């Protein structure tokens, strides 16, 4: 595949045969299932893998009696790649606009956030407590952790774009295996991931997000949400090498009322790797 050669324009969107809605920063790919009269469950994906990461969860939660919504953050999947700063404000506003555009803005929402999606879910709950019914955090980012040298380089303007232009795509593809305990069980995953990379703007979005998102620096948000008494479910793969499993201890310290479940033989994408177990925990939590 040739990376970043195609435009994600109207012709491309028509060929994809997906659902799109136009927001202030461009067209957003989304999927909505169920009745708007049901409790709303919003799925937020992580840093580089778009909303297909919920393929093994989305339908099952909908079939359990919920209105389910998933979408691609700007710069990922088949959503627009605007030329702007990819930070918390961008993604927070994207959620608000999407809910309003789909006439769901007046509903309290149960948010499920994976990895970076967990940091966005936490921040959304902190900023808009009146809009959130519960939080489900799956291997969430946001807490301090050691930074590798190559990660520090990605924080340096100009240099980060140069580095990513030459090696970034392959680094992301090669790194997929690190998200799983046993990547060999999911031969379809790499092709699904790469599909988004043929459209211009993906690389820039990834670099900008890494530079501007507080990926390891929202401990204060965790603390405030923990004091709010908002119902929280915390799920973590015991073999997570991306956001180390050991961080669940700090998360539980900051979220003292959280219900916690460790997932054995699961890496960072525990919701995909052990979907049956994770779905069971989610449905039980939501039913309460």
| Number of E-type strands | 8
Shape: globular
CATH homologous superfamily classification: Alpha/Beta hydrolase fold, catalytic domain
- Low confidence ranges: none
Cα-based radius of gyration, to the nearest Å: 18 Å
Structural overview:
With 288 residues, the protein is an alpha/beta fold. The protein has one domain (10-287): Alpha/Beta hydrolase fold, catalytic domain (Rossmann fold). It is built from twelve helices and eight strands. It has helices spanning 10-16, 58-63, 88-101, 116-127, 149-153, 159-174, 189-195, 202-212, 219-227, 248-254, 270-273, 275-287, and strands spanning 19-23, 26-33, 40-44, 67-71, 109-114, 132-138, 232-237, 259-263. Strands 1-2-4-3-5-6-7-8 form an eight-stranded mixed beta sheet, sandwiched between helices. Strand 3 (40-44), helix 2 (58-63) and strand 4 form a beta-alpha-beta unit. The longest helix has 16 residues, at 159-174. The radius of gyration is 18 Å and the shape is globular. It starts with 9 loop residues before the first helix and ends with a helix.
């Amino acid at each position: 595949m040739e990376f970043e050669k195609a435009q994600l324009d109207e012709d491309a969107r028509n060929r994809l045969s997906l659902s799109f809605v136009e927001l202030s920063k461009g067209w957003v790919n989304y999927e909505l299932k169920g009745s708007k009269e049901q409790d709303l469950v919003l799925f937020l994906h992580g840093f580089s893998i778009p909303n297909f990461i919920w393929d093994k969860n989305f339908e099952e939660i909908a079939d359990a009696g919920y209105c389910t919504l998933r979408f691609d953050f700007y710069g990922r999947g088949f959503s627009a790649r605007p030329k702007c700063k990819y930070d918390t404000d961008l993604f927070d506003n994207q959620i608000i606009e999407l809910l309003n555009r789909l006439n769901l803005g007046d509903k309290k929402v149960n948010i499920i956030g994976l990895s970076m999606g967990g940091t966005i879910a936490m921040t959304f709950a902190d900023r808009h407590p009146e809009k959130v019914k519960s939080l489900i955090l799956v291997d969430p980012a946001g807490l301090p952790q050691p930074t590798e040298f190559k990660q520090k380089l990605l924080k340096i303007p100009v240099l980060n774009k140069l580095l990513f232009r030459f090696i970034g795509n392959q680094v992301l593809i090669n790194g997929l295996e690190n998200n799983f305990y046993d990547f060999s069980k999911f031969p379809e995953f790499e092709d699904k991931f790469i599909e988004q990379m043929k459209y211009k703007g993906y690389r820039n979005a990834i670099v900008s997000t890494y530079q501007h998102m507080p990926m390891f620096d929202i401990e204060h948000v965790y603390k405030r949400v923990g004091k709010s008494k908002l119902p929280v479910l915390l799920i973590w793969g015991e073999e997570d090498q991306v956001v180390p499993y050991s961080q669940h201890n700090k998360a539980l310290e900051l979220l003292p009322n959280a219900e916690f479940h460790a997932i054995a033989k699961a890496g960072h994408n525990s919701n995909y790797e052990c979907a049956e177990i994770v779905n069971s925990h989610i449905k039980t939590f939501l039913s309460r």
